[in-house]
UniProtKB/TrEMBL annotation:
Species in which this protein is naturally found: Prunus dulcis
Domain of life: Eukaryota
SUPFAM superfamilies recorded: DNA/RNA polymerases, Ribonuclease H-like
Keyword list, A-Z: Hydrolase, Metal-binding
Protein name, UniProt field: Transposable element protein
One of the protein's GO biological processes: DNA integration
């Protein structure tokens, strides 16, 4: 374009395009728009005979005012969702977008930003001084409670971080009150490992850190306390931020393989193990592991958390035709041995082994029988005894070690010993020991109780036991067969089998119990109150002592099928029991008039029935013990009865007391 009188007499079309303007040529005209969208026309110029477009700067005032408003820094700030002016400047200077004019940073206050984005004032980084040696300053914080209990019933974890090395330790707790005990373990272990003393603790004002025992312990050991101000976790930012990092890493690992959340402690333990081997901004090109131990960590042994794996079963623990390995899920690294932690979802056991083959691309299918995702396990105590050998170090040759499902209580430089085989102090959760003779005696038992109806139906004695149970229910008028309700839920039932033994160990009888699946009941719909009192141990002892002093005879009796006598106040329906569904009436269900074992309200219904019985018989209930009844006849006869669920203990100065 030819511009008479302009210092630079040519206006570059290319530069205008680069600056976001849109130029349209046609029909002898040049039209200049503010953007490619052509929303606003800035000017238009006619082509002259010399094929140039002379531009006149005589514009209408309205147009100039509108253009000025449209190019205001504040309007672009709002157009871009209240983007800060630093971001606006970056978009413009780096030419990351088209159509953004040159804007100057403003110093005013945007009310929308204040309401929507105002934060607390920044905490200067130079406020906190870094420690100059190991254990000079440790950061402590408690995280929890978690929504899901772990298999060891833990709901909290406590992180401890050494400020100088940024080494992390983790301890798992059932209650906050265990924090003091865990800190004492940490202090003893780390001081023995490093030769340094813990000098200062920085924590929040949680009650677990302000207990009298904790304060007295710190004073006795010369440990300085640094407490954060209320609602100011930033003052303990090192461990607060690490808490978030640990949780995010644990959640990512659990989600990646679709694992149930009751394994959160294993994920947290593994996250801490890995973070100690990862870089951190606080250290200069070394990991916390190296800063603490002086050695570079090896990571060739690392595997994907939650992967399928196969644990080798030694020859001594299997028969010739049995599989050589068992399938499990990798859940972490052993801290006191050189090996891996593997969870077996089938047997609900935790295995420690070095002979493990990994399938890192696949994961366990975490569903139960009805297709729903597993969220919990019923973990039974396992005996940590090797019955095959008297050698105390047999596991070092590759035998997988079976443990109780108890989480490691710490992730410490015990990790160091698992790689470097260095001897160090390590705290084990106490195991539940048993005498070896008792264990071997249990192994010799040949009694096998069926776990499901299909197994019991193959034995006549168990069929007879189930028929006896149903006859007892029918005789007691516990239920009646009705049409399936449309507005009330129907609860399932299951058979539970138990072999009753005599004192000499011989079989007395097989007992089958029909149990309602009370865990499916909903409060307020299937039941209301569930509390039922039982006799206190002190009451039983007092009763026995009184009988001994007075010379009275003491009697005890069991009420057969006690819960079947409790009358229900609620409307409850159950399915027909497996194996005893009435032909032609398969769609019908039982309405309960009296309780079944397994119902939430069964104990309360039974107590209400037995309480009513004793009251009608003239007994007087104690004001301080709801299960203690007395009956006085004349001046010399008294009968005292105490109830513990379906067990009744009674004594007194009454002739023919047993018949009475």
């Amino acid at each position: 374009m030819y511009l008479p009188g302009l210092k630079e007499n040519l206006l570059s079309v290319g530069q205008m395009d680069e600056h976001g303007y849109c130029l349209v040529f046609g029909e002898g005209m040049c039209r200049v728009f503010d953007s490619p969208s052509m929303d606003y026309l800035i000017t238009k110029v006619e082509m002259k005979s010399n094929r140039c477009y002379p531009v006149s700067f005589l514009a209408e005032k309205q147009l100039l005012m509108k253009t000025s408003f449209l190019q205001s820094p504040w309007i672009w700030h709002k157009r871009l969702g209240h983007l800060n002016f630093g971001g606006l400047k970056q978009l413009r200077d780096k030419e990351m977008v088209h159509g953004l004019p040159q804007l100057e940073e403003q110093s005013g206050v945007c009310e929308g930003c204040q309401f929507g984005k105002q934060h607390r004032n920044v905490f200067p980084k130079d406020q906190a001084q870094r420690a100059s040696k190991v254990l000079e300053l440790v950061h402590v914080d408690l995280c929890g409670p978690m929504r899901n209990e772990s298999v060891a019933r833990n709901r909290y974890f406590m992180l401890i971080i050494d400020d100088f090395t940024r080494m992390i330790w983790v301890y798992f707790l059932r209650n906050k009150s265990e924090a003091f005990y865990c800190f004492k373990k940490f202090k003893s272990m780390t001081e023995l490992q490093t030769g340094h003393k813990v000098q200062c603790i920085r924590s929040d004002r949680g009650g677990e850190f302000l207990s009298t025992d904790f304060l007295e312990f710190c004073e006795a050991n010369g440990i300085q306390r640094q407490l954060t101000m209320a609602y100011t976790p930033q003052q303990n930012g090192v461990v607060e931020r690490k808490n978030r990092t640990v949780i995010e890493m644990a959640k990512s690992m659990l989600h990646e393989k679709g694992m149930p959340y009751f394994l959160w402690t294993e994920a947290v333990h593994t996250a801490v193990y890995l973070l100690n081997r990862c870089p951190t901004k606080a250290l200069n090109n070394i990991t916390p592991f190296e800063a603490y131990s002086g050695r570079k960590p090896g990571i060739a042994h690392l595997k994907v958390f939650g992967s399928l794996c196969y644990v080798h079963v030694p020859t001594e623990l299997r028969h010739k035709l049995e599989p050589k390995s068992t399938k499990g899920v990798f859940v972490g690294y052993a801290t006191c041995e050189k090996g891996y932690r593997v969870f077996d979802p089938v047997s609900n056991k935790l295995l420690l082994s070095r002979d493990v083959t990994f399938d890192e691309e696949n994961a366990w299918h975490w569903t139960d029988k009805d297709g729903s995702v597993m969220t919990s396990y019923s973990i039974e105590d396992q005996v940590d005894l090797d019955l095959k050998s008297d050698s105390s170090n047999e596991n070092s040759t590759g035998t997988p070690q079976t443990l109780d499902m108890q989480e490691s209580t710490s992730s410490t430089p015990g990790d160091i010993s698992s790689e470097e085989r260095r001897t160090q102090a390590y705290d084990h959760t106490p195991l539940k020991w048993r005498r070896l003779d008792d264990v071997l005696a249990q192994c010799n038992l040949c009694i096998m109780e069926p776990e499901k109806y299909a197994d019991a139906a193959q034995d006549e004695s168990w069929l007879k036991a189930m028929e006896d149970e149903l006859q007892m229910i029918e005789k007691n008028e516990t239920w009646e067969l009705v049409d399936r309700p449309t507005e009330k839920p129907v609860i399932g039932v299951k058979w539970v089998y138990k072999t009753k033994l005599n004192l000499d160990g011989s079989v007395q009888k097989n007992k089958a119990r029909l149990v309602a699946k009370g865990y499916a009941q909903k409060p307020g719909l299937d039941y209301n109150e569930t509390y039922a009192p039982v006799a206190r141990l002190d009451t039983i002892r007092t009763l026995i002592a009184l009988a001994a002093k007075k010379g009275w005879k003491l009697f005890q009796l069991d009420v057969k099928s006690a819960f079947l006598n409790g009358v229900l106040q609620e409307e409850v329906y159950v399915n027909q029991p497996e194996g005893f569904v009435i032909k032609g009436k398969e769609d019908k269900v039982y309405r309960l008039h009296k309780a079944l074992y397994g119902l939430k309200q069964a104990p309360r219904a039974w107590y209400g029935e037995i309480d009513s019985y004793f009251t009608q018989c003239g007994f007087v209930k104690s004001l301080s013990e709801a299960t203690l009844y007395t009956k006085v006849r004349g001046d010399k006869e008294i009968l005292i009865v105490s109830i513990y669920v379906d067990d009744i203990v009674y004594t007194g100065a009454v002739k023919h007391c047993k018949k009475t």
